[in-house]
Amino acid sequence: MSLHGKVAIVTGSGRGLGLAYAQELARQGAAVVINDVDEKTASDAVATIEAEGGRATAVVAAVGPTETAQKLLAAALESFGGVDILVTNAGVLRDKTLWKMTDDDFDTVIGVHLRGTFTCVREVATHLREAGKPGRIICIGSPTGQRGNFGQTNYAAAKAGIVGMVRTWAIELKKAGITANAVIPVAATAMTATVPYFAAAVEASERGETMPAFFRHDLGFGTSEDVAGVIAYLASDDAAHITGQAIGVGGDRIQLWSHPEPVVTAYHEGGWSTEALQAEAHELFDGQLQSVGETFPPLPEELQR
């Protein structure tokens, strides 16, 4: 597999997961457009890629507005002569419970994650279609978008929406040879570093050691670099047959998330009146109601902090 001759745009790639994606795409041969809201962070990211013999340029702008999407595409065309790959990773958090979340908390997260994904994909996909080129769209989701999480109304809505858009784009872009997939990463980030449950894993990572097997294998929790290989693979010609999928990855684990499917189907002649449901709902739904949120197994004693 090689991405030599390919050009990738990676939003939110100044640090963390986004930087790992950009570095791996460059390692596989792609030229990369880095994006961050901080100029020094963006220039430092470019320098890490160039230090390894790769090619990169930076666009310093907040993702969300159409103008930013246009700047990203223009940078790819002007610096490297085209675009083949888009990874939409940029995001922010404004975690609060429903009753404390403000309009601004909600709109900010939706604007960056959901609208930012939409505007960037629209810009790149339109260019690829008009140029008659195949391409790869890779959008970053989250387990929160798949299952929900306490205090993350805005983030859950955005990440679930991204997967819904990806499924739609896979249908709309198929004829043009453009794939669209979502990646659901589980990795140590600034957010997970503050969660006591992950303390032993974070400590090991900070020491430059391999995380304990409980985290890498049982939880599928690892480093940013553990996710990057899936991004590079989906960006390659080898993955031309994969589209409309949500692929989870973390630590030593990879998963293919199912599309939502009914788990109970029943019929009632004349329709389901309130009275019919009162009489039959327990029999229909008991033992079949779906779980919400993620439940982690107990930490082994030696990993407790």
TrEMBL record:
Recorded coiled-coil stretches: none
Domain called Ketoreductase: residue spans: 6-189
Keywords from the UniProt entry: Oxidoreductase
Listed Gene3D superfamilies: NAD(P)-binding Rossmann-like Domain
PROSITE patterns named in the record: ADH_SHORT (PS00061)
Family: Belongs to the short-chain dehydrogenases/reductases (SDR) family.
Protein name, as recorded: SDR family NAD(P)-dependent oxidoreductase
Organism: Microbacterium schleiferi
Lineage: Bacteria, Bacillati, Actinomycetota, Actinomycetes, Micrococcales
